[in-house]
Specification:
Elements lengths: L1 E2 L2 E2 L5 E6 L4 E7 L3 H20 L2 H17 L1 H12 L3 H24 L4 E2 L10 E9 L2 E5 L7 H12 L3 E5 L6 H12 L7 E3 L4 H10 L3 E7 L2 H10 L4 E5 L5 E4 L5 H13 L11 E5 L3 H13 L19 H16 L3 E4 L3 E2 L2 E2 L2 E4 L6 H4 L6 E7 L2 H9 L3 E2 L1 E5 L3 H10 L4 E4 L15 E2 L2 E2 L4 H7 L1 E9 L1
Parallel strand pairs: 7-8, 7-10, 8-9, 10-11, 12-13, 12-20, 13-18, 17-18, 20-21
Antiparallel strand pairs: 1-2, 3-4, 5-6, 6-24, 11-23, 14-17, 15-16, 19-22
Helix pairs in contact: 1-7, 2-4, 2-6, 3-4, 4-5, 5-15, 9-10
The structure holds NADP nicotinamide-adenine-dinucleotide phosphate.
């Protein structure tokens, strides 16, 4: 662990495995409540130092860290592919994105402004000057999932530091290594001791300790809705931002560019074996072009290379654990028992599921209505655009959705009616660049990430009124 600028070990080692084959690759240590408390104390001690830094000092540290990520890209990409099992090509992209996330955060450190309040818009305000300044909240607990262990952590740590806060980071138990490498990088880039702390170990114990700790001002959480709801229920007056899951849908209309739509659905459904919160899970295809579209998706899926994540030729590797792969396999079986057809894939070997295309999946099976978080795409037909919009909205989640059509009228008709945090026209829902506002409605969460938006949530507007 990394607490107050020191490496800390407990008595209990935690092996980290490459999920593809179970090979041991690193060892970290199991922290507990005491380590969480010590990390919060270190972060609270460093808070005055961060608060007093100039915006430029904070920006410089973030900019240096952004550069260092690129200088250490091989080590970081290797840690990411090993701990997550995502193909090395995707791990390298994550590293590049994490560098951008810190660059955008560095820029926000410079930009963060308050506003002048027009006090005399009311007679009682005559002679008063009002302004807001943005102040840091203090200690922020950043709790992150396994699927983008570096970039999603930077989406919390970057804006938190840009706003003058300090951080306790709790990475997922399966993917703690890149978090610890990043803590070292920040130290080398001049971040004061205690401004960033990393506690590894079980989410239940450490997460609860952070959520309940009186000195933690905000919980910034990315992960499953189940844990998000638990945090929300226990956080009391703390600020909480929740980036949760989804079962993202895309509409492919009769006038779409089918080659492009099929290629993007394949990429958007199978990247990181579908373990992306905005993975393409439900594809609603206009019945008139269903056959042509299906052929393209199936033939493209069959060309994907399944293999070890370290190989550059690999498109699809394993899920995060054997247990998760068994769960996905079970959901596929359930859909098939209920009448769905397997058009491609469908089998499992250890933690790896072949890229799978299902057709005519009943809407009330788990493969359709829950977040599958595996390499499975459902193809279902629709008769009218409004019927397709209804199907997209018939979900407990609302992170992102999309439509493929050449008709701008239809595109905006759908954009206005689909209830999600982000809507993509001629792009799959699994699209994100790191500066855009990103987050969901319904069970997909509350709050927005992207450094410009996160830094707003991680700072408090303080009003100052002066009577001249
Ligand atoms: P998860 O099981 O919810 O875990 C996320 C984090 O929460 C981990 O660090 C976990 O620690 C910790 N945790 C577990 N129990 C906790 C508790 N009681 N209190 C506080 N923290 C606790 O999620 P995951 O399986 O790692 O990730 C997959 C989920 O994340 C999917 O639902 C996916 O859609 C979602 N996700 C959302 C976004 C987004 O931006 N909207 C992005 C990526 C992923 P342990 O690992 O030690 O259990």
């Amino acid at each position: 662990m990394y607490i107050g600028g020191e490496s800390v070990r407990s008595a209990t080692p935690l092996p980290v495995e490459i999920p593809f084959d179970g090979a041991a690759f690193a060892t970290v240590f199991r922290g507990g409540r005491d380590h969480a408390d010590a990390a919060v104390q270190a972060a609270a001690n460093a808070a005055p130092l961060m608060r007093e830094m100039t915006r430029d000092q904070r920006s410089q540290i973030l900019r240096r860290a952004s550069d260092s990520i690129l200088e250490q890209r091989d080590a970081l990409a290797s840690a990411i592919y090993s701990e997550t099992g995502k193909p090395i090509r995707e791990a390298r992209i994550e590293v590049e994105r994490a560098s951008y996330t810190l660059l955008f955060s560095a820029e926000e450190a410079h930009r963060l402004v308050g506003e002048v309040v027009p006090m005399d818009a009311e007679a009682a305000g005559k002679g008063r000057w009002g302004m807001t300044v943005r102040e840091p909240l203090g200690v922020i607990a950043a709790i992150t999932p396994f699927n983008f262990p570096l970039n999603l952590a930077m989406h919390k740590i970057g804006p938190a530091l840009a706003g003058g806060n300090t951080v306790v980071h709790k990475p997922a138990s399966t993917t703690p290594v890149s978090a610890l490498l990043m803590a070292r990088i920040f130290e080398e880039c001049g971040l004061p001791k205690g401004a960033l702390n990393v506690v590894t170990g079980p989410g239940g114990e450490i997460g609860d300790a952070l959520v309940e700790h009186p000195q933690v001002a905000m919980i910034s959480f990315t992960g499953s809705p189940e844990v998000g709801l638990r945090i929300r229920a226990r956080a009391g007056m703390k600020r909480v931002s929740l980036e949760l899951g989804g079962n993202a849908a895309v509409i492919v209309d009769e006038d779409a560019n089918l080659d492009e739509a099929a290629a993007r659905c394949i990429a958007g459904g199978f990247a990181h074996s579908g373990q992306v919160c905005i993975s393409v899970q439900r594809v609603y295809v206009n019945r008139k072009i269903r056959g042509e579209f299906e052929d393209r998706v199936v033939s493209g899926t069959r060309k994907l290379v399944v293999g070890h994540p370290k190989e550059t030729a690999t498109d699809i590797s394993s899920l995060i654990t054997v247990g998760e792969a068994e769960r996905v396999e079970g959901w596929v079986h359930e859909a098939v028992e209920r009448g769905a057809r397997v058009l491609a894939g469908g089998s499992r070997r250890r933690a790896t599921i072949e890229p799978t295309v299902l057709a005519d999946v009943p809407e009330d099976t788990r493969a359709a209505c829950r977040e599958i978080f595996g390499p499975v795409i459902n193809l279902n037909s629709y008769e009218s655009l409004d019927a397709a919009i209804e199907l997209v909205n018939h979900s407990d989640y609302g992170l992102q959705a999309g439509i493929y059509t050449r008709d701008i009228g239809k595109a905006f008709h759908a954009a206005q009616r689909v209830h999600v945090g982000g809507f993509m026209i001629n792009e799959v829902p699994q699209y994100r660049v790191d500066q855009m506002p990103y987050g969901g409605v319904k069970l997909s969460g509350a709050g927005r990430e992207g450094p410009k938006y996160a830094v707003e949530e991680m700072t408090e507007p303080k009003l100052i009124v002066w009577k001249g």
